[in-house]
Amino acid sequence: MNGRSFEIAVLPGDYIGPEIMRAGLAVLAVVSKNKNFDYKIKELPFGGAAIDKDGDPLPANTLKECQDSDAILLAAIGGPKWDQASKRPEAGLLEIRKALNLFANIRPTAISPAMQKYSPLKQIKKIDFLIVRELTSGIYFGKPREESEQAALD
């Protein structure tokens, strides 16, 4: 692609995350080979792995490298190992979303023909649905407008 090499920050994460990332990178290697898509990856600590290595789920260097990259690939983070941590892996996810202004989670939804019989929507022949979830404000970041011992409102 115009002789340019793209920088991809790779955040393998925790538990099954590294396994998922290896598979994803294998797919990227095959697909990019036939498309003349040149890239370099930078594997960076994030989530629980970063807590173990650096004491923080989003080390400053990881954030800087992500900001300087053309793309970021992120696998699963968190797990019971860090349930009692003073700063949980998920805090890094919220921080990186905020720092990079990643304000929406976009989830295309479709049901494959093989799964149609299991779907509660099996009467519908084709489902092509897009869910957009806002990710950067309100109670999602733990700051409700009103909070009491019995309830929280946002």
- How far the N terminus sits from the C terminus, by CA atoms, comes to 46 Å
Poorly predicted runs are none
What order do the strands of the largest sheet run in, or round the barrel if closed?
A: 2-1-3
Biggest pleated-sheet summary:
3 strands, parallel
The third-level CATH topology of the largest domain is Rossmann fold
Query: What is the number of E strands?
Result: 7
Oligomerization category of the chains in this entry: single chain
Helix and strand content put the structural class at: alpha/beta
What portion of residues belong to β-strands? 15-25%
CATH architecture of the largest domain: 3-Layer(aba) Sandwich
Helix content: 25-40%
* Global mean pLDDT: 88
When the domains are counted, the total is: 2
Question: What is the CATH top level name of the largest domain?
Answer: Alpha Beta
What's the total helix number?
A: 4
Q: Characterize the overall form.
A: globular
Radius of gyration: 19 Å
User: Order of SSEs, N→C?
Assistant: EHEHHEHEEEE
